[in-house]
Fold:
Amino acid sequence: MLALKRPEPRAGVLEIEPYVPGSNAAAQGATVFKLSSNETPLGPSPDAVCAYHEAAEHLAVYPDGSGAALRAVIGRAYAVKPALIVCGAGSDELLNLLAHAFLGPGDEAIHTVHGFLVFRTATLSAGGWPVVVPEFNYTADVDAILSAVTPRTKIVFLANPNNPTGTYLPFDEIKRLRRHLSPEVLLVLDAAYAEYVRFDDYKSGIELVGSANNVVVCRTFSKIYGLAALRLGWLYGPAHVVDALNRIRGPFNVSQPAIAAGVAAMTDVAHTETAAKHNARWLPWLVREIGKLGLTATPSVANFVLIHFPIVAGRTAAEADAFLCARGLLLRRLEAFRLPNALRLSVGTEAANRRVIAALSAFMGGAA
Ligand SMILES: Cc1ncc(COP(=O)(O)O)c(C=O)c1O
Structure:
C-alpha cells in the first residue's frame, strides 16, 4: 500500500490537547447559571454596550490597527506609556504572540503545575518545550521556578493570581523571582484577575516593566470588564518586546467594536468598582459556606474558588459536577489542570451563589 503523503504540522502541535472551555450546556429545561469561565455576573458597563452598538455603524471600515484610542485610555488609567502597550484579541493572543516571538525549537518555557493552560499550548505551538514545576499549597513557588531554569529557558509564564487555584504571590516574591532570573529570560506576568485582588502586598507587576528589560504584564477585558465575547486584552512591556510583537501580530488583530467598548469600559470606573465590591462580598461568603459543608476551598483572591472534593464514591468532583449540572449550575471540571478532584466555581449573582451552595449542601447531604 502506498504511504499516505500529506502535509504534517510541525513537532509539538499534535502534543497539544485541544482546549475545552468551561461548560455552556445544562440539563434541558433547567435555568442555566454559567459559573465555569470566571465571567463577571454584572456584565459590562452599559457605556461599553453603547459604544459597541455605535461601532456597528462602521463595520465596513478597517479598525485602527494600532488601537491608539485604547492605548491612550489605558495609559492614563495606569500612568504608563501608551507606546509600550500592545493590544490583542484577548490576552490569549498576546501569550501566543510572546511564545512565537521568543521561543524556537529546543527552547524551554516554565510554568507551574496548575498554571493557566494557554501557557502550555502557546509554548508547544511555537515549537518550544513546556517545563512544569511544582507548586506549594496550590501556590507558585519561586524557588521551584528558579531551580528549573536551564540555559534553554527563554520564558517564565506566571499567572498572578493564578487560574484555577485563585492563589497569588506577593510583589516581594515577584521581585525576588525577577532578580534571580537571567536578564535574557522573559518573565511573563499574566494578571487577568488583578482588579479583584484586595491585598496591599499584591501588585500586577506593571511597576517592574520600567526598571527591567525582561518583564511583561498581560491584562484582559474579559473578566472584571465583562467583555469576554469581544476578545480584548493588552500587554505592557519594554520597547524591544513591544517592537517584536508589533512585527508579528496581525495588522488588525483587534476589532473596532472591541476597541470602542474597551475605551468605554475602562472609562466607567464606577462600574468596575461595583463589580469589585460584589466580588469582595460574595467570594468570602462562598468560601465560608463551602467550608460549612465539610468541603475544602483553596483561599482565593480572584473571582472564583477552587473546591476540593473527597475521593469517596458518591462525593467525588465528577459526581458533584453531574449533580450540579442537572440543576443548571455549570462549574469547571479541572482534569486538564491536573486537578481531577476539584471543581472551580466562579462568583456569580447573589441568586446563583445561593443556589450553588444549596445544591452543594443537597449533594453532600446525599439528597438525590
Ligand atoms: C490567567 C488567565 N489568563 C488569561 C486568560 C484569558 O483571557 P482572555 O479572555 O483575555 O484571552 C484567562 C481566562 O480565563 C485566565 O484565566
About this structure: DSSP finds twelve helices and 13 strands in the chain. The longest strand covers residues 153-159. The first helix runs from residue 46 to 55. The CA atoms of residues 56 and 257 lie 7 Å apart.
